Amino acid sequence: MSHNVYIARLLTDNIQNKLADVDGFTFDIGEIAPPSREELLSRVAGKDGAIVTLTEKIDEEFFAAAGPQLKVVANVAVGFDNIDLEAAARHGVTITNTPGVLDGATADHTFALLLAVCRRIVEADNFVGEGTPWIWGPRMFVGLDISAGATLGIIGLGRIGLAVARRAAAFDMKVIAADATRTVGEVVEGVEIVSQEDLLAASDVVSLHVPLLPTTRHLINADTIAQMKDGAYLINCARGGVVDEKALIAAIDSGKIRGAGIDTFEGEPNIDPELIKRPQIVCTPHTASAGEATRDAMGQLALDNVVAVLSGKEAVTPVRM
Question: What's the pTM value of the predicted model, to 2 decimals?
């Protein structure tokens, strides 16, 4: 029996080339751009499985449109806030994600943003690109010297948070972390777990690595920013909703926060233009996992999950409620 699978977005060339070799499966493949809502609901109809990305909203309407034969939806992302897990459970659909394979790439991007912001790399590049006459001076584009005893505070010490901590250690940064699943005073790979309040007060740079949940939405807001060290920096490679962007902009303008590196946004793909206007904020378009090998691995894991479930096996990385 052949299994029909809808792939909402074009995956990497390496994964697309492998699809023809998957015996017993046929694939209905979308384009590079995300499908419209109407196209998504139309093309998933009658399918046994689907491979989707974070740009697709997977909800009751989606499952109803697909039909009762749908058994698995594989999200090509570590997060799954675009999926209604309760609706999936009601329809008996297994949901999977792609954890683990993007840890290194996301940690690399986190540290790239940290360096770009703290050392004002983008500001300096823009300055040179504008052709402004200049002569070297001791006050030009001075930023945070991270290897001179700066403290990095990581909120969310999971796989990605730990990968960031290892990179920070190589730069001689002191690293502390706050994590809702760990105990204050615990030490994990040399990283001391502290309260969130203590972390905010002590950190020169705060880096966010938590999922978007009701408890983490606007985790960084006017109140928590007030607890931060004056002149600290903020890095967000988690989810856009974790940061109250209006509060961040106000903190940048007041000087409370000296700079920020942001990879994910509340209204994504639309970005608050006030974020873009401020040279102290470096923005990237949700590309933390955009390494060639990493994107291949994400697509392969999603494919493996779909094949496993439709072959009557356990998913490789099922999402648990």
Answer: 0.92
